[in-house]
Write a structure and sequence with these properties.
This protein is of the alpha/beta class. The chain is built from eight helices and 15 strands. It is 35% helix and 33% strand. The strands form four sheets. The protein has a five-stranded parallel beta sheet with strand order 2-1-3-4-5, sandwiched between helices. The chain has a five-stranded antiparallel beta sheet with strand order 10-9-8-12-11, with no helix packed on it. Strands 13-14-15 form a three-stranded antiparallel beta sheet. The longest helix has 24 residues.
Protein backbone atom coordinates (compact mmCIF):
# COMPACT_ATOMS: atom_id res chain seq x y z
CA UNK A 1 0.00 0.00 0.00
CA UNK A 2 1.22 3.48 -0.87
CA UNK A 3 1.77 5.72 2.16
CA UNK A 4 2.21 9.39 1.28
CA UNK A 5 4.04 11.73 3.64
CA UNK A 6 1.92 14.85 4.08
CA UNK A 7 2.63 18.33 5.45
CA UNK A 8 0.18 21.09 6.36
CA UNK A 9 1.10 24.77 6.06
CA UNK A 10 -1.82 26.77 7.40
CA UNK A 11 -2.00 29.74 9.77
CA UNK A 12 -5.36 28.78 11.28
CA UNK A 13 -5.16 26.24 14.12
CA UNK A 14 -8.81 25.31 13.54
CA UNK A 15 -8.14 24.59 9.85
CA UNK A 16 -5.02 22.57 10.72
CA UNK A 17 -6.99 20.45 13.17
CA UNK A 18 -9.71 19.94 10.58
CA UNK A 19 -7.16 18.71 8.04
CA UNK A 20 -5.46 16.44 10.59
CA UNK A 21 -8.75 14.70 11.35
CA UNK A 22 -9.44 14.18 7.64
CA UNK A 23 -5.93 12.83 7.05
CA UNK A 24 -6.34 10.32 9.89
CA UNK A 25 -9.24 8.71 8.04
CA UNK A 26 -7.02 7.86 5.07
CA UNK A 27 -4.46 5.15 5.83
CA UNK A 28 -2.62 5.99 2.61
CA UNK A 29 -1.37 9.23 4.23
CA UNK A 30 0.96 9.96 7.12
CA UNK A 31 1.12 13.47 8.52
CA UNK A 32 4.80 14.22 9.17
CA UNK A 33 4.49 17.86 10.22
CA UNK A 34 2.57 21.11 10.28
CA UNK A 35 3.52 24.78 10.17
CA UNK A 36 1.62 28.00 10.75
CA UNK A 37 3.58 30.26 8.40
CA UNK A 38 5.64 30.20 5.21
CA UNK A 39 9.12 30.34 6.75
CA UNK A 40 8.39 27.47 9.16
CA UNK A 41 6.75 25.57 6.30
CA UNK A 42 9.84 26.03 4.11
CA UNK A 43 12.10 24.52 6.78
CA UNK A 44 9.64 21.69 7.44
CA UNK A 45 9.34 20.74 3.77
CA UNK A 46 13.10 20.75 3.26
CA UNK A 47 13.53 18.54 6.32
CA UNK A 48 10.70 16.05 5.78
CA UNK A 49 10.61 15.91 1.94
CA UNK A 50 6.84 15.28 1.85
CA UNK A 51 4.96 13.77 -1.08
CA UNK A 52 1.90 15.93 -0.47
CA UNK A 53 1.45 19.52 0.67
CA UNK A 54 -1.79 21.03 1.98
CA UNK A 55 -1.17 24.75 1.56
CA UNK A 56 -3.19 27.74 2.67
CA UNK A 57 -2.96 30.64 0.23
CA UNK A 58 -3.82 33.70 2.30
CA UNK A 59 -1.38 33.87 5.23
CA UNK A 60 0.18 36.88 7.00
CA UNK A 61 3.59 38.23 5.90
CA UNK A 62 4.07 35.70 3.06
CA UNK A 63 1.39 33.83 1.14
CA UNK A 64 1.29 30.27 -0.14
CA UNK A 65 2.50 31.21 -3.62
CA UNK A 66 5.64 32.73 -2.11
CA UNK A 67 6.36 29.43 -0.34
CA UNK A 68 6.15 27.55 -3.63
CA UNK A 69 8.52 30.05 -5.18
CA UNK A 70 11.07 29.35 -2.42
CA UNK A 71 11.07 25.58 -3.01
CA UNK A 72 13.39 23.94 -5.52
CA UNK A 73 11.21 20.83 -5.70
CA UNK A 74 7.48 21.23 -5.16
CA UNK A 75 5.43 18.35 -3.67
CA UNK A 76 1.99 17.53 -5.01
CA UNK A 77 0.19 20.66 -3.84
CA UNK A 78 -3.42 21.00 -2.75
CA UNK A 79 -4.42 24.56 -1.99
CA UNK A 80 -6.76 25.19 0.94
CA UNK A 81 -8.60 28.50 0.95
CA UNK A 82 -11.67 30.23 2.33
CA UNK A 83 -11.89 32.54 -0.67
CA UNK A 84 -13.41 31.59 -4.01
CA UNK A 85 -11.18 33.95 -5.99
CA UNK A 86 -8.10 32.14 -4.71
CA UNK A 87 -9.63 28.78 -5.56
CA UNK A 88 -10.17 29.92 -9.14
CA UNK A 89 -6.63 31.27 -9.39
CA UNK A 90 -5.20 27.96 -8.19
CA UNK A 91 -6.37 26.36 -11.43
CA UNK A 92 -4.61 29.10 -13.39
CA UNK A 93 -1.44 28.24 -11.49
CA UNK A 94 -1.84 24.56 -12.44
CA UNK A 95 -2.23 23.31 -8.87
CA UNK A 96 -3.17 19.68 -8.45
CA UNK A 97 -6.42 20.65 -6.74
CA UNK A 98 -7.94 23.04 -4.22
CA UNK A 99 -10.19 22.58 -1.20
CA UNK A 100 -12.58 25.31 -0.13
CA UNK A 101 -12.81 25.81 3.65
CA UNK A 102 -14.63 24.51 5.61
CA UNK A 103 -13.51 21.32 3.89
CA UNK A 104 -16.14 18.77 2.91
CA UNK A 105 -15.05 15.22 3.79
CA UNK A 106 -16.38 13.72 0.53
CA UNK A 107 -14.61 16.39 -1.51
CA UNK A 108 -11.43 15.67 0.44
CA UNK A 109 -11.68 11.93 -0.25
CA UNK A 110 -12.11 12.52 -3.99
CA UNK A 111 -9.02 14.68 -4.04
CA UNK A 112 -6.96 12.01 -2.28
CA UNK A 113 -8.20 9.40 -4.75
CA UNK A 114 -6.91 11.59 -7.59
CA UNK A 115 -3.56 11.99 -5.84
CA UNK A 116 -3.20 8.23 -5.41
CA UNK A 117 -4.05 7.64 -9.07
CA UNK A 118 -1.30 10.02 -10.15
CA UNK A 119 1.26 8.52 -7.77
CA UNK A 120 0.41 5.01 -9.01
CA UNK A 121 0.96 6.10 -12.62
CA UNK A 122 4.29 7.69 -11.78
CA UNK A 123 5.44 4.55 -9.94
CA UNK A 124 4.56 2.45 -12.98
CA UNK A 125 6.66 4.78 -15.14
CA UNK A 126 9.53 4.45 -12.68
CA UNK A 127 9.35 0.67 -12.83
CA UNK A 128 9.44 0.72 -16.64
CA UNK A 129 12.30 3.15 -16.95
CA UNK A 130 14.79 3.90 -14.22
CA UNK A 131 15.09 7.58 -13.40
CA UNK A 132 11.86 8.57 -15.17
CA UNK A 133 10.25 9.78 -11.95
CA UNK A 134 12.66 12.68 -11.66
CA UNK A 135 11.25 14.19 -14.85
CA UNK A 136 7.74 13.98 -13.37
CA UNK A 137 8.74 16.34 -10.59
CA UNK A 138 7.50 19.88 -10.85
CA UNK A 139 9.00 23.28 -10.26
CA UNK A 140 7.28 26.51 -9.35
CA UNK A 141 7.77 29.42 -11.75
CA UNK A 142 6.61 32.96 -11.07
CA UNK A 143 6.87 36.01 -13.31
CA UNK A 144 5.06 39.12 -12.18
CA UNK A 145 1.52 38.14 -11.22
CA UNK A 146 1.59 34.87 -13.15
CA UNK A 147 2.52 31.57 -11.52
CA UNK A 148 2.87 28.01 -12.82
CA UNK A 149 3.65 24.54 -11.50
CA UNK A 150 5.50 22.89 -14.37
CA UNK A 151 6.72 19.33 -14.73
CA UNK A 152 10.37 19.06 -15.75
CA UNK A 153 9.47 16.91 -18.77
CA UNK A 154 7.14 19.63 -20.12
CA UNK A 155 9.86 22.27 -20.34
CA UNK A 156 10.97 22.71 -23.96
CA UNK A 157 13.90 25.10 -23.68
CA UNK A 158 16.01 27.17 -21.27
CA UNK A 159 17.62 30.34 -22.64
CA UNK A 160 19.98 32.92 -21.13
CA UNK A 161 18.59 36.44 -20.71
CA UNK A 162 21.34 38.55 -19.13
CA UNK A 163 21.98 37.09 -15.67
CA UNK A 164 18.66 35.24 -15.68
CA UNK A 165 16.99 32.43 -17.63
CA UNK A 166 13.88 32.26 -19.76
CA UNK A 167 11.90 29.01 -19.55
CA UNK A 168 9.77 27.84 -22.50
CA UNK A 169 6.82 25.55 -21.74
CA UNK A 170 3.41 25.10 -23.36
CA UNK A 171 2.76 28.55 -24.89
CA UNK A 172 4.59 30.39 -22.11
CA UNK A 173 8.00 32.06 -21.87
CA UNK A 174 8.67 32.92 -18.23
CA UNK A 175 11.75 34.56 -16.74
CA UNK A 176 13.32 33.02 -13.61
CA UNK A 177 16.00 34.60 -11.49
CA UNK A 178 18.61 31.86 -11.74
CA UNK A 179 21.53 31.47 -14.10
CA UNK A 180 21.52 28.81 -16.79
CA UNK A 181 24.50 27.10 -15.13
CA UNK A 182 22.61 26.80 -11.82
CA UNK A 183 19.69 25.20 -13.64
CA UNK A 184 21.82 22.88 -15.77
CA UNK A 185 23.38 21.22 -12.71
CA UNK A 186 19.97 19.92 -11.61
CA UNK A 187 18.50 18.79 -14.94
CA UNK A 188 18.19 15.11 -15.96
CA UNK A 189 21.12 14.65 -18.35
CA UNK A 190 19.31 11.99 -20.38
CA UNK A 191 16.65 14.51 -21.37
CA UNK A 192 18.31 17.94 -21.51
CA UNK A 193 21.18 18.93 -23.79
CA UNK A 194 23.35 22.06 -23.79
CA UNK A 195 22.99 23.18 -27.41
CA UNK A 196 25.25 26.23 -27.10
CA UNK A 197 26.34 28.80 -24.54
CA UNK A 198 22.90 30.39 -24.45
CA UNK A 199 20.44 27.48 -24.63
CA UNK A 200 19.55 24.07 -23.20
CA UNK A 201 16.99 21.98 -25.08
CA UNK A 202 14.71 19.12 -24.10
CA UNK A 203 15.56 16.46 -26.69
CA UNK A 204 12.11 14.90 -26.29
CA UNK A 205 10.64 18.07 -27.82
CA UNK A 206 12.87 18.03 -30.90
CA UNK A 207 10.91 17.82 -34.14
CA UNK A 208 13.67 17.93 -36.75
CA UNK A 209 17.49 17.97 -36.98
CA UNK A 210 19.18 19.32 -40.10
CA UNK A 211 22.79 19.87 -41.13
CA UNK A 212 23.84 23.51 -40.95
CA UNK A 213 26.87 25.59 -41.82
CA UNK A 214 30.44 24.71 -40.78
CA UNK A 215 29.57 21.29 -39.41
CA UNK A 216 26.85 22.64 -37.13
CA UNK A 217 23.35 21.24 -36.62
CA UNK A 218 20.08 23.15 -36.57
CA UNK A 219 17.20 21.96 -34.37
CA UNK A 220 13.52 22.63 -34.90
CA UNK A 221 11.39 22.13 -31.78
CA UNK A 222 7.76 20.96 -31.90
CA UNK A 223 6.81 24.34 -30.43
CA UNK A 224 8.38 26.13 -33.41
CA UNK A 225 11.65 27.45 -31.95
CA UNK A 226 14.77 26.96 -34.07
CA UNK A 227 18.04 26.32 -32.22
CA UNK A 228 21.53 26.35 -33.69
CA UNK A 229 23.85 23.84 -32.01
CA UNK A 230 27.46 24.94 -31.75
CA UNK A 231 30.03 23.03 -33.79
CA UNK A 232 31.53 21.37 -30.72
CA UNK A 233 28.15 20.45 -29.28
CA UNK A 234 26.92 19.20 -32.67
CA UNK A 235 29.56 16.48 -32.49
CA UNK A 236 28.51 15.60 -28.92
CA UNK A 237 24.84 15.59 -29.95
CA UNK A 238 25.49 13.12 -32.79
CA UNK A 239 27.50 10.87 -30.49
CA UNK A 240 24.86 10.98 -27.76
CA UNK A 241 21.97 10.08 -30.05
CA UNK A 242 23.74 7.52 -32.24
CA UNK A 243 22.96 3.83 -31.70
Amino acid sequence: MIVLKAVIVEDSRLARNELKELIKIHKEMLLVGEAENVDAGFELINEKKPDLLFLDINMPEKDGFELLEMLEEVPITIFTTAFDEYAIKSFEYNAFDYLLKPINSKRFSKTIEKVLEQVNKEQQIEEKKEGELSIEKQIFIKEGEKCWLVKIKDIVLFEIVGNYTRVFFDDNKALIYKSLSQIEDKLPTAMFFRANRQQIININHVKKVVSWFNGKLKIEMHSGEEIEISRRQSYVFKEQLSL
